[in-house]
């Protein structure tokens, strides 16, 4: 496994010449022939509006604790299902981002000051909900000297004190130009899963993720494993933005070169007319085909479906990923015996 920066860059730039007979069902066009501006969601994308008692209780708890959630801010299609089950992905460091990515529905502007009570409020909400696994993400905070890394550390520490049996998954920004120190701080706090999404293929970064750099994100994830190989690493991409099949395969190879354990793939959905357009609705069969290829490349866990999001079924996926690692280590030990 290539783990050095030089080796990673070489592997990332090597064009994938994989099998041309991979199963690749034709995506469904996102544009009507009669009206190219109209985007019609296929049946497999449509979800019911949230109305359950559990949904309303989760919503009220987030308000009471003054917590933001990516479920609401990013208009996640799974919010009804997850909140009904008392699952929520908390977004720390406020609800205003310092960047304006073309795919993201989170507000852009000048964020408020960091809330010193946020870590304990989050831990208290976790305890009240009885969560066995929690996912914490954040907006980009390029205005802060450490990009917000110290707040992630404080949240992890508060959770360890308040709900010591809860496993912790974090989904961080790229900490632009300061990721080495930021990642070192967070890794020292020892979350169970470190997630950072690549979001799309390198070719589309200038239009879809202009404030970020593909190889910088890869290096961030690689550095987590270098600092603590026991921490699971995770990353995801959106499909339907105009990427080519072999480009997706190349991203998989780049992730494996960085020793990433868990890959998520989901359908991009346009939040508002001002955001990047959906170029295609990728079929469930195509998502299954991508998942089969990813598993063959060696990921411990793969989640791939139109409605997959980074934290969708995160607790269940974490348990399966942990079991997969234990089985892999047991198999290796048996082979040496």
Automatic annotation (TrEMBL):
GO terms for cellular component: cytoplasm. The keyword Iron applies. The keyword Transferase applies. Gene3D superfamilies: Aldolase class I. SMART domains: Elp3. It is found in: Cytoplasm. [4Fe-4S] cluster 1 binds at residues 71, 76, 82, 311. InterPro entries: Aldolase_TIM, Elp3/MiaA/NifB-like_rSAM, LIAS_N, Lipoyl_synth, rSAM, rSAM_sf. GO terms for molecular function: 4 iron, 4 sulfur cluster binding; lipoate synthase activity; metal ion binding. Its cofactor is [4Fe-4S] cluster. It holds the Pfam family Radical_SAM. Keywords: 4Fe-4S, Cytoplasm, Iron, Iron-sulfur, Metal-binding, S-adenosyl-L-methionine, Transferase. Transmembrane segments: none annotated. GO terms for biological process: protein lipoylation. [4Fe-4S] cluster 2 binds at residues 97, 101, 104. It is an enzyme of class 2 (transferase). Residues 83-300 form the Radical SAM core domain. Its EC number is 2.8.1.8. Belongs to the radical SAM superfamily. Lipoyl synthase family. PANTHER family: LIPOYL SYNTHASE (PTHR10949), LIPOYL SYNTHASE, MITOCHONDRIAL (PTHR10949:SF0). This is Lipoyl synthase. It comes from Sphingobium limneticum.
């Amino acid at each position: 496994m290539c783990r050095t920066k030089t080796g990673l860059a070489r592997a990332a730039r090597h064009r994938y010449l994989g099998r041309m007979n991979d199963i690749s069902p034709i995506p469904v066009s996102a544009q009507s022939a009669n009206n190219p501006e109209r985007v019609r969601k296929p049946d497999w994308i449509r979800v019911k509006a949230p109305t359950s008692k559990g949904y309303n209780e989760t919503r009220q708890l987030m308000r009471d604790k003054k917590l933001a959630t990516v479920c609401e801010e990013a208009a996640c299609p799974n919010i009804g299902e997850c909140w009904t089950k008392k699952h929520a992905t908390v977004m720390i460091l406020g609800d205003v981002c310092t960047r304006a990515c073309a795919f993201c529905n989170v507000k852009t502007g000048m964020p408020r000051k960091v809330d010193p009570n946020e870590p304990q409020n989050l831990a208290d909400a976790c305890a009240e909900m009885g969560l066995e696994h929690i996912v914490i993400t954040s907006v980009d905070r390029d205005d802060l000297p450490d990009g917000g890394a110290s707040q992630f550390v404080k949240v992890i520490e508060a959770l360890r004190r308040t709900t010591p049996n809860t496993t912790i998954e974090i989904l961080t920004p790229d900490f632009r130009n300061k990721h080495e120190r930021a990642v070192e701080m967070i890794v020292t706090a020892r979350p169970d899963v470190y997630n950072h999404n690549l979001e799309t293929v390198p070719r589309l970064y200038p239009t879809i993720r202009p404030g970020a750099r593909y190889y910088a994100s890869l290096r961030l994830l690689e550095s987590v494993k270098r600092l603590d190989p026991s921490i699971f690493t995770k990353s995801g991409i959106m499909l339907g933005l105009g990427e080519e099949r072999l480009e997706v395969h190349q991203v998989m190879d780049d992730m494996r070169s960085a020793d990433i354990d868990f890959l998520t793939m989901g359908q991009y959905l346009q939040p508002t007319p001002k955001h990047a357009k959906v170029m295609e609705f990728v079929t469930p069969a195509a998502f299954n085909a991508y998942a089969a290829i990813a598993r063959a490349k060696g990921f411990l866990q793969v989640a791939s479906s139109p409605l997959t999001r980074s934290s969708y079924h995160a607790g269940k996926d974490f348990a399966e990923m942990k079991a997969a690692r234990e089985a892999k280590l047991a198999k290796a030990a048996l082979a040496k015996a």
